[in-house]
Amino acid sequence: MAASLFDSPLYTQLFPTKDCGRLFSDSAALRAMLLVEGALAKVQGELGVIPAESAAAIHRASLEIQIDPGALAQSVGQNGVCLPGLLSAFRKEMNAPEHAQFVHWGATSQDIMDSGLMLRLRQALVLAEADLRRLIALLAAAADVHANQVMAARSYGQLATPTSWGAVLANWGMQAIDALEELPALRAGALWVSLSGAAGTGAALGPQAGQTRAGLAQALGLGDPGRSWHTDRGPIMRISDWMGRNVTLMAGFGQTLIDLAASGIQEVRLGGGGGSSTMPQKQNPVQPSVLVALGHQMAGVRAGLALGGAQRHQRDGAAWFTEWLLLPQICLTHASALAQSIDIATSLAPDAGRMAHTLTQSQGLVHAEALSFALSQKMARPLAQDETKSLCHKALETGSNLEDIARARHPDLPGDLFKDHSQMGQAPDAARAFVARAKALG
Questions:
Q1: What pTM did the predictor assign?
Q2: Residues 17 and 6: beta-carbon distance below 8 Å
């Protein structure tokens, strides 16, 4: 088995990361860092910090020169960061020492690496937004069709009261819309440029340090935090927390689908494969199981990232290295969960017959709550609850239907009290509210 299933040709269809996977490669990281170096030189040239001719040469070279990640391995092993080796290789490839001497002027390795990381995280959020919109659209289309499809709700895994399949879909979809609507604030509060020098003071950047940082932020399309954030990993934590909450949502989606597709229940039909190697009758809930596993993965890596967020003094190598190990896993876990959720939602369908069968098999007990409130119209609420419990116990003991037993003792009960469609409450409205909100997204 590969060290990471996200990079495995064997498991690429089980844990797909699609375009997001390309953002977390050595080549992508180096390309982002060179873009930062080029933009920094351009801004410094415009401010007169370095010669304009050198700034233009560096900026042009940053767009053209390609550096082999493997060629930097020895330097990284010695220095702990890739910038010394990257800068040496870049200056050599420029073949213009009179200009190359101004590369990386006043910056530190973490400035360039963090800013480059933000360029990649920005693109990861763009991809995530597109996937969230696709997932919401699929869930909304299904919720619209199935707003009135009655089924049994579950509480603690047990049958509760009637709801609708559309309302179940809306519960997931509304949370996805919440996440989508958080993105503008997340981008503003997390996608920051970093430029503050070796100890966060900007001393080597000179008197125009603030202007340089602001110019670099504008050039890269990132936010200017107005300060150093070398050991303030709030921006990273905010992005990882957003992704983590999304994966938690999708893991819950997967857990529910595993239950609803289980043998003897089978209230939903899952598309795709899921065949067993020895039992031809089975269709294993593979994709929902992947979502649950990704939820477990995300919980573990987020906990590790939180530990890495506690950093010492003005720079902390050990904590920073921890982030390198875990943040890519968070982003790829998120991308994989979105990809699988979209695939599931594309072919997911309710089995109306099985849903009706589950309600029938409940012996009418799904209407116990409605019965207790109906009885409350003619007796005190505590007495009504006690009476309902007594009737439920009798139904279970005799194998009878709750409606028959209740009407025998209370013949004046409302005629539609035990009708499934009459007891869905606001479930159909919840489904339609989600559909309307999804359509309003544009």
A1: 0.94
A2: yes
